Input
Amino acid sequence: MEQKPLPFDQKKLDGISENTIVIHHDKLYAGYVAKVNEISEKLVELRKSGTAKGNATYSELRALKDAETFTTNGVYLHEWYFDVLGGDGNIANAPELSKAITEKWGSVENTIKYMSECAMAARGWSVLCWDTKVGKIKHYNSDAHNQGGVWGCLPIIVLDVYEHAYFIDHGSDKASYIAAFWENLNWSKAEELYLKAREVKL
Output
């Protein structure tokens, strides 16, 4: 797995500093990429050695498989988060997504308010997604990378609400960071992700 570059100019966000983005992308996210590769190599070595033993209480295999999902989701969720940053917050750039969320929650404003409250209630991630099982827009919270997500759902808007995402700039004022996220949202990218995701129905 390779680290992806930021898809926006880190100096041009409002309310989210370049320092925060540099630490977030170049250290934290990069660290997850490195760990995914390390864990993958260890799993290959363990399998080839013929010593892989499964034990649900504890085993090296269990620990590596648990870490595998945590780190892989850590990479993917951060990539989706960075993908939708760097915009001007203009919902007009997402006509189809705007229509879908308005049909579900009454208006774009209601959706942003609801997702913001969900984000305040989350310890890790707040995710607007396309649920391929029901063919609808849904929202889920996640307190850890590998907890709270729903299989069969494709992320569209991913909001990182771990403290590392906002504490440098906003201290404990999580709400002001969430407001800044919406101001910097790239609705064009969210629209692109939505249009791709809604084609998938299982």
Q: What stands out?
A: The helical segments are 18-49, 60-83, 95-105, 108-121, 167-170, 174-183, 187-197. The first strand starts at residue 125 and ends at 131. The chain is about 50% helix and 10% strand.
